[in-house]
Design a protein that fits this description.
five-stranded mixed beta sheet, GTP pyrophosphokinase, Beta Polymerase, domain 2, 6 domains, TGS_RelA/SpoT, Hypothetical protein af1432, alpha+beta
Length: 734
């Protein structure tokens, strides 16, 4: 579990005397890093002299030192501490990047620049401008994802969390209640949940309690009063309980790790509100956790707890025997502990704890509520593990490299002129942005401004950019947007096709015909039969094919592949057809025509999976009858090289009631929902899927499907449909 080594109070007490803080920290660093920190400290003090933060009026240098002290306790390396001290330099000095790189290094410059980007986004995308709680919740969740996606180094987010923590500690000195409430609301909506999902617990608790203090002051005071002890006294109580537990568990021979904390005010209020409980009905104001190696030790530890202190009736839950929906497993009990105070105890194995903290069905999502996103949660799990390992890594250069992340590069986040954040697929253009807002806006889109500059509609957008759509009063989208690859999102592609489909059918067919003829002209050496070409792509006639191209349903790439398939095959070293023995006609019981012999046992070869109307040939096996191969089967060529006399002519008989398994292969960029989309295509074409094999590597997926067909032509339309799926680069029969 990620935690701050010391209490926040100790950290900020040190930072209250900046010079003393610098001396204490420098003494623990290598000389080169100590010198770097000292230079940054001196530069910040000089640049910030007499300056205050515009949002709160806090002295800028004091704020920087206090935030840097928090970052230092997070063990994020000296570069991050220096970047925190220098966070406001871009506002104080022209051409700051060259100066900072020269004096403090490229890494510090990148961190400061990233923090500036985060600050800009949070200022533009104000959550408090939205009217309903639902809109605020959606905006906050999108912004949390955006902040993680737009940084190249995860320390940027942690530095921002440290700044916000210091701002919240200073907030009582701000006289304007509206300002206090706005900052506190943003903290609870955006920054505290972000700290929660990254596992930075001490910052999470501080942000929640301090934010709650200003958004619900009456409830805060009421709960604080009901907590009849001061926080430090509760911490001391937990410390004494932990010492007792460690002694008893050791005496019983149970190897365990014991930790605890007093429950903070905000979580008490949330639990009271969620479960509609009175304060007197809460038994987990003080809580400890016991982690053991083996499952039996969980119940041994439970017996020790119940032997030491009296259990509270009705407060025992066995989530090991009966796990929660997200597979969370643990024993929970509440007892009357020392001094007759209620105490909650959680007991689980290290493996159970690791699943709760880092598992894909993440416990943080369970706690926050809302819909889950398995891919996103898996990436968060990796970040949590990275931040957990940082305490144990001795390789400082390796740790610095590990902080760099591109986990969230499959999605970008951009802003509307009003500050609304939109999530789009990587590579999205202003067209995708327009359709994400409204289909009518997308249909009339004719241009765009990015950061105030007019750009082409084909321009890929970047994280954090502010985009404005330029529209025409009339007109609609162009099918060329699809064929030229200017559109990436499912929504935009669907809306463009829908619009084009509603237009004049003759115009659409003419557009498709022009696209087809243009592609055909690129292959002057090929003269395919147009009827056969249409059939190969799954259309009864060319007019239907033209219409599909005009609507954008059939891609130019799929047509090009079909045209190329009419190219004559290269000469083969061995032509099985030339050495097949001719004999009298006959057929087997399975509908395969075998020349020369009646009713022989035949089996379709698994290596090439022939199906009508493939040209086929038989190969006489030893003891398994005749195996039927496609004539171009490589395995057949290898088998017949030494025994060509075993080849025998074969053909298809009456197959009206038969189905045949064939293999198709799909190559695509790996993405969420890919397998579902392919399955939908097979389902719509009424093909039975009997086997799937997938392999993902380096963000690319290669999938092989075995489906049952009556004729090979059945698969042509399916392959064309699969080529239309986002990310698919190839779909073919194996």
């Amino acid at each position: 579990m990620v935690s701050v080594v010391r209490s926040m109070a100790d950290t900020l007490a040190d930072a209250a005397d900046p010079t003393r803080w610098l001396e204490l920290l420098s003494a623990s660093l290598p000389q080169a890093e100590s010198d770097l920190l000292s230079r940054a400290f001196a530069a910040a003090r000089e640049l910030y002299r007499g300056k205050v933060l515009a949002s709160t009026g806090e002295d800028l240098f004091s704020h920087a030192v206090s935030a840097a002290a928090i970052v230092a306790d997070l063990n994020l390396l000296t570069d991050a501490i220096v970047a925190t001290l220098l966070f406001a330099v871009p506002d104080q000095r022209a051409e700051w990047q060259e100066w900072m790189t020269e004096n403090f290094g490229q890494t510090v410059t990148v961190l400061v620049d990233g923090v500036g980007g985060v600050r800009r986004i949070t200022e533009l995308a104000r959550i408090d401008k939205l009217e309903t709680p639902e809109e605020r919740a959606r905006q906050a969740e999108t912004m949390r994802k955006m902040l993680l996606a737009m940084v190249a180094d995860i320390r940027v987010v942690l530095i921002k969390l440290a700044w916000r923590t210091q701002t919240m500690h200073y907030l009582p000195h701000v006289h304007d209640e509206a300002v206090r409430r706005a900052i506190a609301t943003e903290t609870l909506d955006l920054f505290a949940p972000l700290a929660n999902r990254l596992g930075v617990w001490q910052i999470k608790w501080e942000l929640e309690d301090l934010g709650f203090r200003h958004t619900e002051p009456d409830s805060y005071k009421k709960i604080a009063k009901l907590l009849d002890e001061r926080r430090l006294e509760r911490i001391d109580y937990i410390g004494r309980v932990l010492d007792t537990l460690r002694g008893e568990l050791k005496a019983a021979g149970v190897k365990a790790e014991v930790a605890g904390r007093p429950k903070h005010i905000f979580s008490i209020w949330k639990k009271m509100k969620k479960k509609k409980l009175d304060f007197t009905e809460l038994y987990d104001i003080r809580a400890v956790r016991i982690l053991v190696d083996k499952l039996p030790d969980c119940y041994t530890a439970l017996g020790i707890i119940h032997g030491m202190w009296q259990p509270i009736p009705g407060e025992f839950d066995d989530y090991i025997s009966h796990p929660k929906a997200n597979n969370y497993r643990s024993l929970h009990t509440a007892v009357i502990g020392p001094e007759d105070k209620a105490l909650e105890v959680q007991i689980r194995t290290f493996e159970m704890h690791e699943h709760a903290e880092f598992g894909v069905a993440a416990h943080w999502r369970y706690k926050e509520g809302g819909k889950g996103d398995a891919q996103y949660e898996e990436k968060i799990s990796w970040l949590r593990q990275l931040l957990d390992w940082r305490e144990e890594m001795s390789d400082r250069e390796g740790l610095a490299e590990a902080f760099k992340t591109e986990l969230f590069s499959d999605t970008i986040y951009v802003l509307t002129p009003q500050g609304r954040v939109l999530a789009l697929p990587h590579g999205a253009t202003p067209i995708d942005f327009a359709y994400a807002i409204h289909s009518g806006l997308g249909n009339r889109c004719r241009g765009a401004k990015v950061e105030g500059q007019i750009v082409p509609l084909s321009t890929p957008l970047q994280n954090g950019q502010r985009v404005e759509v330029l529209t025409a009063k009339e007109g609609g989208p162009s099918v060329n947007w699809l064929h030229d690859g200017w559109v990436k999102s499912h929504r935009a592609i669907s809306k463009i096709r829908q619009y084009i489909r509603l237009q004049n059918a003759d115009t659409v067919r003419e557009t498709g015909k022009q696209l087809f003829e243009r592609e055909l002209a690129r292959h002057p050496h090929l003269q395919p039969n147009l009827g056969a070409l249409a059939e190969k792509l799954g259309y009864a006639k060319m007019d239907e094919l033209y219409g599909a191209m005009g609507h954008g349903e059939l891609s130019v790439r799929a047509v090009a592949n079909a045209i190329l398939s009419f190219a004559p095959p290269p000469p083969a070293d061995v032509e099985p057809e030339s050495i097949i023995r001719a004999s009298r006609g006959g057929h087997d019981a399975g509908g395969i025509l075998i020349e020369g012999v009646d009713n022989l046992m035949t089996v379709l070869a698994k290596c090439c999976k022939p199906a009508p109307p493939d040209a086929v040939v038989g190969f006489v096996t030893k003891g398994r009858g005749i195996s039927i191969h496609r004539t171009n089967c490589l395995t057949l060529k290898r088998l017949s090289a030494d025994v060509p006399e075993r080849l025998i002519s074969a053909g298809w008989g009456d197959q009206k009631s038969s189905v045949f398994p064939i293999d198709i292969e799909v190559v695509s960029l790996d993405r969420g929902g890919l397998l579902r989309d392919i399955s939908d295509v097979l389902s719509r074409e009424k093909l039975n899927l009997i086997a799937v094999h997938t392999l993902s590597r380096d963000m690319r997926a290669k999938m092989r499907f075995t489906v049952e067909v009556r004729q090979v032509q059945d698969i042509s339309r399916v392959l064309a449909r699969m080529m239309e799926l986002p990310g698919v680069t190839d779909a073919r029969r194996v």
